[in-house]
Amino acid sequence: RKEVEQDPGPFNVPEGATVAFNCTYSNSASQSFFWYRQDCRKEPKLLMSVYSSGNEDGRFTAQLNRASQYISLLIRDSKLSDSATYLCVVRDNNDMRFGAGTRLTVKP
Amino acid sequence: GAGVSQSPSNKVTEKGKDVELRCDPISGHTALYWYRQRLGQGLEFLIYFQGNSAPDKSGLPSDRFSAERTGESVSTLTIQRTQQEDSAVYLCASSFRDRGAGELFFGEGSRLTVL
Q1: CB count, 10 Å around CB of B48?
Q2: 20 to 30 A from A8, CA-CA: which of A21, A25, B42, B92?
């Protein structure tokens, strides 16, 4: 089993749609969780951290379920500029473990 | 510039040749990582440097791969006797906090193609 697993997609959605990505991790002792965004042929950049109580940043909402070892990212009112690959990242002991990413394409 | 700088941005080499990739982290960042990303794949951890501590080399895929870092500045990743499966984007990232604790800032990567 991979340490961090994501649905690779692709997710193709129209502008304005709500889309959700899921991520599961294998180590129950993992400590910190993040979503990174990677545009095509670009480097990954931090989108948001994921806190135990859940957190929101504008149109983006991140949730953590430690019991199920599950992280989610919800994007509301999606924009064309949201098209990218979204990487789930888990801090596991002293390592940052990256999922393979979920590709999103938002279409007009 | 203020970001992580990597060079070369693109490298095409023949199988069996050695290549050297360079990373200039953000000034003041003590932690430096190298990752490999094959086409359509996720990031694969290679090596981690933190200040003057011994590096974590656990992700290096073979003894053909090695990396050095001068203090808390420039790092070089060397691949000897390159193979076609080494073709990938090699990403360097730095962080001002201890491993895993802070945001990773990535360079734009060095795209390696082994013919």
Answers
A1: 25
A2: B92
Nearest residue in chain A measured CA to CA from B98:
A94
CA angle B48, B91, B49 (to 5 degrees): 15
Whether A94 has its CB under 8 Å from any CB of chain B: the answer is yes
Residue A100 backbone class (left: φ over 0; alpha: ψ -120 to 50; beta: rest): alpha
Q: What is the pLDDT of residues B2-61, one digit of tens each?
A: 799 999 999 999 999 999 999 999 998 888 999 999 988 889 999 999 888 889 999 999
**C-alpha pair distances (Å), A33 with each of A75, B47, B52:** 17, 21, 27
CA distance A27 to A38: 24
Inform me whether the C-beta atom of residue B90 falls under 8 Å from chain A C-beta atoms.
no
Q: What's at A4, amino acid-wise?
A: V
Contact (CB<8Å) B99/A98 = no
Answer whether the bond into residue A10 is a cis peptide, omega within 30°.
yes
Q: Is A39 on the interface with B (CB under 8 A)?
A: no
Contact A35, A86 (CB under 8 A): yes
**Quick check: B63 contacting A, CB < 8 Å?**
no
Write the single-letter amino acid at B17: K
